[in-house]
Design goal:
The chain is α+β, with helices and mostly antiparallel strands. It is 24% helix and 35% strand. The C terminus is likely disordered.
């Protein structure tokens, strides 16, 4: 088992190149530290909400391993003007897969970051599950994994959804025809967008990892799969 680290970044467009250079240095440092397993940096493609330019999805052997290593090192990307990160450990709470065949050779990754007031989590989850039941039978839907903030790290974002669709058009057309019920919950705000993986770093060879994580080569990392 491992713990999933999600870090949602606000990055000014003019600072993207400098941010990525610094992030790669940080990733190289952590890759040599005990407890690090892998990391995948995703960049917003401009399809969907543009609030968050980058989201990092990483795996550590434990939350404690991540925390102790970050306490001993200040990531250089935070020194770039205008950059703000929100790193936290998340747990996967819902996993749903579509029932149809996958026709796309390169599915796209949808990341949706949710904020909400305290006390709204249960109502949000009920509505989100109804939304997912609606989409799971739709053409183009592949799978979705909802992650909940464990309270270990930054607590700004309560939930992050990691999903795959066959194409941006499939995701957008289905959402144009249906308004997810979770957005009717008072105070809930989502930031859905299509992201592309722009950098990967592993401790173990990708081919070995792919045996356990079939979609990892597309830059999609849902965390340890349930038995």
């Amino acid at each position: 088992m491992s713990d999933t680290l999600l870090n949602v970044f606000i990055v000014p467009r003019e600072s993207e190149a400098e941010f990525l250079r610094n992030w790669r240095e940080t990733a190289a440092f952590f890759s040599k530290r005990p407890g690090f397993l892998e990391t995948h940096m995703h960049r917003n493609t401009g399809v969907g909400n543009g609030t968050f330019r980058f989201i990092n999805i990483a795996a550590w052997e434990s939350a404690a391993a991540w925390h102790s290593n970050h306490d001993a090192y200040k990531p250089g990307e935070y020194s770039v003007p205008g950059v703000k990160g929100h790193p936290a450990i998340y747990e996967r709470v819902v996993e749903v897969r579509g029932g149809g065949e996958i026709h796309a050779q390169r599915p796209v990754t949808l990341l949706n970051v949710f904020t909400m007031p305290d006390g709204q989590e249960a109502e949000f989850l009920r509505n989100w599950k109804e939304t997912t039941e609606h989409f799971r039978s739709k053409k183009g839907f592949i799978e979705t994994h909802l992650h909940r903030n464990t309270g270990f790290g930054n607590q700004t974002h309560k939930f992050v959804n990691i999903a795959r669709w066959e194409s941006p058009e499939a995701w957008r057309s289905n959402h144009d025809d249906y308004k997810p019920g979770e957005y009717n919950v008072p105070g809930v705000k989502g930031h859905p967008a299509i992201f592309e993986c722009v950098a990967d770093l592993y401790v173990d060879p990708p081919d070995e990892l792919a045996k356990h994580q079939p979609f990892i080569r597309e830059g999609f990392f849902p965390g340890p799969r349930a038995a």
